Amino acid sequence: MKFIDKIEDSCRRTTSITTLQVNLGKVCNLTCTHCHVNAGPNRSEVMSKKTVDQVLAVLKKFNFEVLDITGGEPAMNPNFKYLIENGRNYVDTIIVRTNLAILEEKSYKDYIDFYVKNKVTLVASFPCYTKENTDAMRGDDTFTACVSVLKNLNAAGYGIEEDLELNLVHNPGGDFLPGSQEELENEYKKVLGENHGIKFNHLYAITNLPIGRFAQHLRSENLLEDYMNTLEDNYNGEAAKKIMCRSQISVDYRGIIYDCDFNQMLGLQANGPQNLKELLEVETLDREIVFENHCYGCTAAAGSSCGGGLT
After folding, report:
1. Which residue range(s) make up the domain with 288?
2. Cα–Cα dist 99/103, whole Å
3. Which of 22, 37, 181, 187 is 20 to 30 Å from 277 by CA-CA measure?
4. What pLDDT, on the 0 to 100 scale, is given for residue 15?
5. How many structural domains are present in the chain?
6. How far apart are CA 251 and CA 278, in angstroms?
7. Bridge-based pairing state of the strands 248-251 and 257-258
8. What is d(CA 69, CA 272) in angstroms, rounded to the nearest whole number?
9. Which residues of 62-101 are buried (b: 16+ CB within 10 A; e: fewer)?
10. Do 129 and 179 form a contact (C-beta atoms < 8 A)?
11. How far is 258 from 248, CA to CA, in rounded Å?
């Protein structure tokens, strides 16, 4: 069944829009197997300062609570610090989604101090607490680099002080749904704490959506149809009521508007204003959400969002 025929009518429109998620581009220092953005070192797409200024104008006009900055690796955009320094004038919370390993590179060693100064909430990709599984998904020695960065973040107060929140993201290592988010968080805290002395606030368990590099993998292994059936068979109507596209809008590096970062990667533009310029000309952010079958990924089992499980 098509997703649009499954989801209840009451879930098809936005509710109160609280989050502006901004994708600063597809440049990244890693090439992860589960990446839905197809990001990597060979990409060149980055948001210009002109578009960043439009983002700031939208933040100023509308009453957003959260600026959620993602990529690629967003810190590699030359306008990254400018967006944070100015965006903090308009929102209570700024989230940066980081792959952690970038903070081991010499050019980015000062970014932890910058995050502390600006009270940035960090959401860090850490797909597994074992070196074998993490390196398999993200590249050789990535686990070691991430552990080192997490220790540096703890030393700076992240995951320890109340206003320096550090959350980790778990992604399954294959064509299956994540386990219990609560149980995974407990296991992560136990293993990382005992083995490395690492502390963090929360774990987000996020389902791998069948798009981007992960979809390419599924097709190459003839697993795409089976995985889609798994997502559909585990549809959760309660999770559908809380999907993130009902409370956020997503902006790509060109300033084009989408319902979420996943639709963005598929080129499924939102209904209503098509870009930041048009968004500045309207008075409401309410809209009919654009759904396709990949949306089963956000509503399967406990549900999945940029903030983890939904039920």
Report:
1. 3-299
2. 8
3. 37
4. 83
5. 1
6. 12
7. antiparallel
8. 22
9. bebebbbbbbbbbbbbebbeebbebbbebbebbbbbbbbb
10. no
11. 9
Mean pLDDT of successive 10-residue stretches along the chain, which has 311 residues: 95 94 95 86 96 98 97 97 98 97 94 98 95 90 95 98 97 94 98 98 96 92 97 97 96 97 95 96 95 98 96 94
98, 125 contact by CB (below 8 A) = yes
pLDDT of residue 138: 86
Q: Classify residue 304: in a domain, yes or no.
A: no
Contact partners, residue 76, CB within 8 Å, separation at least 6: 25, 27, 28, 29, 46, 102
Q: What is the DSSP letter of 288?
A: B
pLDDT at residue number 44: 93
Q: In 3D, which of 131, 120, 41 has the Cα closest to residue 80? A: 120
**311 domain residue, yes or no:** no
Residue located via tokens 């300062």: 49
- pTM for the whole structure: 0.96
* Residue found by looking up tokens 């889609």 in the block: 228
Structure tokens at 65: 């609570």
**What is the token pair recorded at 225?**
């149809």
Give the three-state DSSP class for 114. helix
Instruction: Output the pLDDT for position 32.
Output: 86
Q: Give Cα separations from 226 to 16, 114, 232, 233, 294 (angstroms).
A: 35, 44, 10, 10, 13
- CB-facing half-sphere around the CA of 228: CA atoms within 13 A: 16
Say if residues 6 and 243 touch (Cβ distance below 8 Å).
no
In this structure, are residues 203 and 302 in contact, taking their beta carbons and an 8 Å threshold?
A: no
Here the CATH number for the domain that contains residue 36 is 3.20.20.70
pLDDT at 243 (0 to 100): 97
